[in-house]
């Protein structure tokens, strides 16, 4: 895993492990939590949330119980209102793209080598079978 925690300007972090590239969008999550708290304290969702929070559990949490349906509906309405994107300026987007490319290039090379090795193994096996 990359130990480089230098942010890409705009408070995004790009990290890599041998198999994955991860964009850390902590600022987006922070904004979303802020928005959720604002929404839950506002008139539109407060009563629904309090009904869910104060409901007596009936022990039927099979995903179809009425309280579960109310939870899913509230979740859907909240998600509709939350941020799902992190805005980047042109220069920020280029820095993110370059950083991702620098992590992805070795991964692609390793995957290509593994695929070639598998193909070579399959070819050898086919020759032995014939």
Describe the structure in your own words:
The protein is mainly α and 130 residues long. It contains four helices and two strands; from the N terminus they run ββαααα. The chain has a two-stranded antiparallel sheet. The longest helix is centred in the C-terminal third of the chain and has 40 residues, at 90-129. The model has no long low-confidence stretch (mean pLDDT 78).
Distance between the first and last residues' Cα: 44 Å
What is the topology, as strand order, of the major beta sheet? 1-2
The residue-averaged pLDDT reads 78
Radius of gyration: 24 Å
Rough shape?
elongated
How many helices does DSSP assign?
A: 4
Structural class computed from helices and strand pairing = mainly alpha
Number of strands: 2
Helical proportion, percent range: 55-70%
Query: Unreliable stretches, pLDDT < 50, 5 or more residues?
Result: none
Order of helices and strands: EEHHHH
Tell me the fraction of residues in β-strands, as a range.
Answer: 5-15%
Major beta sheet summary = 2 strands, antiparallel
């Amino acid at each position: 895993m990359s130990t480089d925690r230098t942010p890409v300007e705009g408070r995004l972090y790009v990290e890599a492990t041998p198999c994955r590239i991860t964009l850390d969008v902590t600022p987006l999550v922070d904004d979303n939590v802020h928005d959720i708290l604002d929404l839950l304290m506002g008139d539109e969702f407060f009563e629904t949330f309090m009904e869910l929070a104060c409901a007596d559990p009936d022990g039927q949490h099979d995903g179809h119980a009425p309280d579960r349906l109310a939870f899913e509906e509230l979740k859907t309405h909240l998600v509709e209102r939350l941020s799902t994107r992190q805005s980047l300026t042109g220069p920020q987007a280029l820095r993110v793209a370059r950083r991702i490319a620098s992590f992805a290039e070795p991964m692609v090379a390793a995957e290509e080598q593994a695929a070639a090795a598998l193909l070579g193994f399959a070819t050898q096996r086919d020759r032995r079978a014939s």
